[in-house]
Amino acid sequence: MRPVGPLQGFLNYQLIHASFAVRAPVWLPYSCMLLATQWRQTVKIKAAVLRESGRPRPYTESLPLGIEEVELDPPMTGEVLVQIKAVGLCHSDLVAITGERGKPLPIVIGHEAAGIVAEVGPEVDGFAPGDHVVPSFVANCGRCDMCREGRPALCQPASVANSSGTLMDGTTRLHHNGSRIHHHSGVAAFAEYAVISQSALVKIDRSVPFEHAALFGCAVITGVGAVINTADVSPGQSVAVVGLGGVGLSSLLAAKAAGAGKIIAVDVQDAKLELARDLGAHETFNATDPDCVARIRAATDGGVHIAVETAGAPRALESAYQMTRRGGTTVTAGLPGPEATITLQHFSLAGEERSLKGSYMGSCVPSRDIPRYIGLFQDGRLPVDRLMSRSISFDELNGAFDRLADVNTVREVLVL
Ligand SMILES: NC(=O)c1ccc[n+]([C@@H]2O[C@H](COP(=O)([O-])OP(=O)(O)OC[C@H]3O[C@@H](n4cnc5c(N)ncnc54)[C@H](O)[C@@H]3O)[C@@H](O)[C@H]2O)c1
Ligand SMILES: [Zn+2]
Ligand SMILES: [Zn+2]
Is the CATH number of domain 222-360 3.40.50.920? Predict the structure, then answer.
């Protein structure tokens, strides 16, 4: 991180914040600006910037992520500057690169992170430099209907901010040569530093290694929360997990920790099925087998109590629904492109009293659930460190996304 000179910082503020008349220090005299920049300074940082989606594979040649020096403004009211220490690569980053789920460009992607608080902005409570933190990929306003109902994953202003690639106030802190750069899910973690809303941050135990802590920011809260919060699995129930990436294998570990009776794991890759057996699956099935659903129904006395879809493929959700028993629940955490549709037997929903539930961010309250799940990890009941395939550097990011697209990996983690 290098500070930007006061004059350059002032010009950047004018360019980026020109439309926000109330925001100091834009309209302060230059002398005050010089004072202001002494404690709240724009800095230059290294970051992986996605400027164009849909580039062809292999990414080692088309290089969708450019490792660039960009400028990062200081934290504003309620925001925190975090030094990023580790970032996991999630399928939701990959679909930003492919363009399957479009993002405002240019953007710094990466949303499954852990780091150290470097500086706090005005009106920040409960965080201080040196704290170890994990950001959740949805901030929360605390005031909208969803937040008041205890469902912060669905916070309405945060959803607008995430779709727009901004922080909660509708602006960005990232820019380069006067052009704004967007933040992925309010985190923008493939970077040396990030400015993040305090409402997204959860303080964690300092003894947890950063590369393991990062996984709790997305794969773990999503996969574990889908089983514990959304499905509310009871001991002895049978659970199937369809799609065994970082999210699905977290669901599998959660089913085991919750005392599920029979755990079934399903994927299209035999290597994933082998890992699932190592992690506690009782039976595994390859989804490319045309009899896969029939065989699972036969092995579970007419279907599983709970099926969790974590593949992000319509076919996987259809299979998950078909392998769910009468009275059972199918949960979907997968996020395909917005045009994807599924075909289900309408009759069975009412006639068999079946439930189909969506699960976003594992229906979690991050400040409650991340410390709980970390506690389970520390007790050895949620060995999510087993999901980490390897650690990588900035220069290896594009190749790591090739491996994620080829399904040759679970969680590779950028370590800084
Ligand atoms: N709901 C949320 O809050 C949330 C959060 C994070 C990620 N996601 C989504 O969850 C999904 C999984 O993410 P990930 O990072 O674990 O992905 P991943 O790419 O690491 O894993 C996906 C797995 O699904 C398998 N798969 C693909 N098609 C299949 C099929 N038809 N049947 C069975 N298995 C199949 C793949 O082989 C792979 O092992 C993605 O869609 C991602 O965008 C959702
Ligand atoms: Zn994710
Ligand atoms: Zn809200």
Answer: no
